[in-house]
């Protein structure tokens, strides 16, 4: 039971809105027409219980008064209608009357209204009570009696000595006059019965077409407002139904819709101009209104997919489905051909219209039909061109997407969303995705292999350190033995030197492997860069002197603060200076410079190589040596260690070669942090 009541509420809310709005339209139209035709006084008269209180009654009595006061009327006319009794005297003599016994002192039976004019002012009595007709003495409109005696309505001189007595029946009846007893032109109708009857007959239509529709329409409209959420469900249901209608049908129905709007406009104009049409013509107003509601409601809920349910869209989907089996290039060629074919109906339409306008059949066909034919052909051409443009624009967007995906694949970024299934470049993107997946898999395998290799080197280096330490210790003990032949001592010395070299090489390999795997421990703290370089030069002074080379250093006098690990950075410059001493040209100079530029400090070592430097070689790669013959005793790890340690400390390392000039640069950002002062115990 509850489910059924819930399901009917949207329908009730919509029908309440429908009938409420229509009834309000009826009430407003009828009310406006009544006001325009009758005026506010006419509408007010319809709801008066006593016809003698109406503006129409005051107007009728005033008109008869001025007629009775007119000498020409007195001479030529008589009123036979007994609903209005009158007597006119001039200087005490009766001029005209339809009731000889009429007196201002008493009313005949059935008469309750008495008007008496004494030549200057008018006195009115109703039901025995005198009515104040003058108020403040000024006449302002139909709400008052239009009679002489106001300050702004002077009494004509011809009214001097004139008295007029008028008696009005309480309930007028229709009279059939006996004109045989009257002389002159006889007027048989005073208009009083018509005044009462018209007011009585007008009341019912006003109630039926204005009051009742206005009240019921307002109640129904309020009901629909209170049930707004149910009315929204009704709108959605209507939108679901209108969404099933083809777009082309909706466009064709716009023609009668516009005609209904034009008819509704003329209906509204007719209310003002008092021109009236048939009831069917006035129905165009609610028809146009609710037709507009259907269109607006459809746009509100179906705007995003308004073209989905249309004959053209169906044909386009069928065409698109067949197009997917063609290569991308063939699709674009066919679209170009279709663009040309789409223009053919328009061109043919222009030719046909030309011959119809200027040919022998011109008089048989209306111009409107010809223009409509041409317009339809033009609309077809525009629609076809727009659809083809959208398809080409979509293909262009797919090309941009494909290019962006290629760039993303090249930079290692995440790929964009996949293209739709019916995209022209879907196959190309899928091929690119497969290639990207294979590249990622290959790169992952390579990185995995590299990691395993580094771990193997680290483990082997670690395993070699213990026996090498024992070998160094035993060779040291052998060197301390006495009574050994000289040639045996020479052998022991060579063995000792080679063991130390092997130990240093294993340590280098171990350090490089740890740094490459991210396991190199570093302690970052504020460091005076210039002081570190001076200390390194001092420690290597013996090697510098023994090399026969000259080392020129240019260091700032003050401290240059950076954030780095002092031990690791010391090893960096130990390797760089040692590398320069080992490979520099005999008798040449080595230059060490520390400079500050902006917020960075750069240490640069330059030397002229003894051997020709090969072109395109990365000297920071592991086991790369300047001596291709490998007879200098180096391991090829010095520069690799320098670069790895520098980057681990947060700096940047670079090498430049120009002919035989070798330049190594180590750069660190400056810091405002200073080391904490040491506290003595």
Task: Report what the structure shows.
- This protein is an alpha+beta fold and 681 residues long.
- It has 17 helices and 15 strands.
- It folds into four domains: 1-231, no CATH class; 311-407; 435-520, Helix Hairpins (Orthogonal Bundle), CATH 1.10.287.130; 525-669, Heat Shock Protein 90 (2-Layer Sandwich).
- It starts with a helix and ends in a 12-residue tail after the last strand.
- β14 and β15 form a beta hairpin.
- The radius of gyration is 58 Å and the shape is elongated.
- 57% of the residues lie in helices and 13% in strands.
Fill in the keyword field for this structure.
5-stranded mixed beta sheet; elongated; 15 strands; alpha+beta; 17 helices; 6-stranded antiparallel beta sheet; 681 residues; Helix Hairpins
Backbone CA Rg:
58 Å
Query: DSSP helix count?
Result: 17
| Strand residues, percent | 5-15%
Average pLDDT for all residues: 77
Strand order of the largest sheet: 3-2-7-4-5-6
What count of structural domains? Answer: 4
Structural class: alpha+beta
Distance between the termini: 92 Å
Find the count of extended strands (DSSP E, 2+ residues). 15
Helix % is 55-70%
Largest sheet: 6 strands, antiparallel
Secondary structure elements and their pairing?
Elements: H1 2-46, H2 55-68, H3 71-76, E1 77-79, E2 84-90, E3 93-97, E4 111-117, E5 122-126, E6 129-131, E7 162-169, E8 185-187, H4 192-226, H5 228-243, H6 247-273, H7 279-282, H8 284-302, H9 311-323, H10 328-358, H11 367-411, H12 426-479, H13 486-516, E9 525-528, H14 529-539, H15 541-547, E10 550-554, E11 561-564, H16 566-583, E12 589-597, E13 600-608, H17 638-648, E14 652-658, E15 661-669
Parallel strand pairs: 1-8, 10-12
Antiparallel strand pairs: 2-3, 2-7, 4-5, 4-7, 5-6, 9-11, 12-13, 13-15, 14-15
Helix pairs in contact: 1-4, 1-5, 5-8, 6-8, 10-11, 11-12, 12-13, 13-17, 14-16, 16-17
């Amino acid at each position: 039971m509850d489910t059924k009541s819930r399901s009917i509420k949207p329908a009730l809310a919509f029908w309440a809105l429908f009938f409420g709005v229509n009834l309000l339209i009826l009430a407003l139209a009828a009310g406006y027409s009544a006001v325009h035709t009758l005026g506010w006084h006419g509408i007010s008269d319809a709801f008066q219980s006593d016809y003698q209180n109406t503006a129409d009654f005051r107007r009728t009595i005033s008109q008869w008064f001025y007629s009775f006061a007119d000498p020409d009327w007195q001479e030529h006319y008589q009123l036979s209608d007994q609903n209005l009794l009158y007597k006119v005297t001039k200087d005490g003599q009766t001029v005209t009357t339809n009731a000889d016994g009429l007196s201002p002192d008493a009313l005949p039976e059935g008469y309750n209204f008495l008007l008496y004019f004494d030549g200057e002012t008018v006195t009115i009595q109703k039901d025995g009570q005198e009515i104040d007709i003058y108020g403040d003495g000024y006449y302002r409109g139909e709400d008052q009696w239009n009679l002489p005696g106001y300050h702004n309505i002077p009494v004509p001189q011809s009214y001097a000595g004139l008295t007029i007595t008028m008696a009005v029946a309480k309930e007028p009846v229709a009279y059939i006059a006996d004109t045989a007893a009257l002389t002159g032109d006889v007027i048989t109708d005073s208009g009083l019965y018509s005044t009462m009857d018209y007011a009585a007959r007008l009341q019912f239509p006003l109630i039926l077409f204005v009051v009742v529709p206005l009240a019921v329409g307002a109640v129904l409209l309020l009901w629909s407002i209170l049930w707004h959420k149910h009315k929204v469900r009704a709108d959605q249901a209507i939108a679901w139904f209108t969404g099933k209608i083809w777009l082309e049908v909706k466009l064709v129905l716009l023609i009668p819709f516009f005609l209904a709007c034009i008819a509704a406009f003329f209906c509204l104009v007719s209310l003002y101009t008092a021109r009236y049409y048939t009831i069917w013509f006035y129905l165009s107003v609610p028809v146009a209104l609710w037709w507009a509601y259907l269109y607006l409601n459809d746009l509100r809920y179906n705007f995003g997919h308004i073209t989905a349910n249309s004959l053209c869209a169906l044909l386009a989907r069928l065409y698109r489905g067949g197009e997917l089996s063609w290569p991308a290039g063939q699709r674009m060629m066919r679209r170009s051909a279709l663009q040309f074919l789409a223009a053919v109906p328009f061109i043919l339409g222009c030719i046909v219209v030309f011959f119809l306008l200027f040919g022998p059949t011109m008089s048989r066909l209306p111009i409107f039909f010809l223009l409509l034919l041409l317009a339809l052909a033009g609309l077809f051409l525009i629609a076809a061109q727009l659809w083809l443009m959208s398809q080409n624009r979509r293909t262009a967007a797919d090309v941009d997407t494909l290019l962006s995906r290629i760039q993303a694949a090249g930079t290692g970024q995440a790929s964009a969303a996949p293209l739709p299934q019916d995209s022209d470049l879907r196959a190309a993107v899928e091929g690119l995705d497969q290639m990207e997946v294979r590249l990622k898999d290959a790169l992952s395998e390579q990185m995995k292999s590299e990691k395993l290799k580094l771990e193997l080197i680290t483990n082997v280096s670690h395993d070699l350190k213990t026996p090498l330490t024992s070998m160094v210790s035993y060779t040291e003990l052998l060197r301390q033995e006495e009574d050994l032949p000289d040639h045996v001592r020479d052998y022991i010395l060579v063995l000792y030197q080679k063991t130390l070299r092997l130990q240093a090489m294993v340590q280098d390999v171990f350090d490089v492997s740890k740094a490459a795997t991210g396991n190199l421990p570093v302690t970052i703290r504020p460091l005076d860069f210039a002081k570190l370089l001076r200390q390194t030069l001092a420690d290597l002074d013996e090697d510098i002197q023994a090399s026969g080379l000259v080392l020129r250093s240019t260091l700032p006098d003050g401290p240059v603060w950076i954030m780095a690990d002092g031990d690791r950075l010391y090893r960096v410059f130990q390797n760089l200076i040692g590398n320069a001493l080992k490979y520099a040209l005999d008798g040449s100079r080595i230059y060490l410079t520390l400079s500050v530029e902006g917020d960075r400090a750069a240490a640069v070592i330059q030397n002229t190589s003894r051997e020709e430097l090969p072109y395109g070689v990365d000297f920071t790669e592991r086991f790369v040596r300047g001596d291709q013959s490998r007879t200098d005793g180096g391991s090829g790890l010095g520069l690799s260690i320098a670069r790895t340690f520098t980057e681990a400390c947060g700096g940047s390392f670079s090498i430049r070669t120009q002919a035989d000039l070798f330049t190594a640069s180590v750069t660190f950002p400056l810091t405002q942090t200073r080391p904490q002062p040491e506290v003595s115990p």
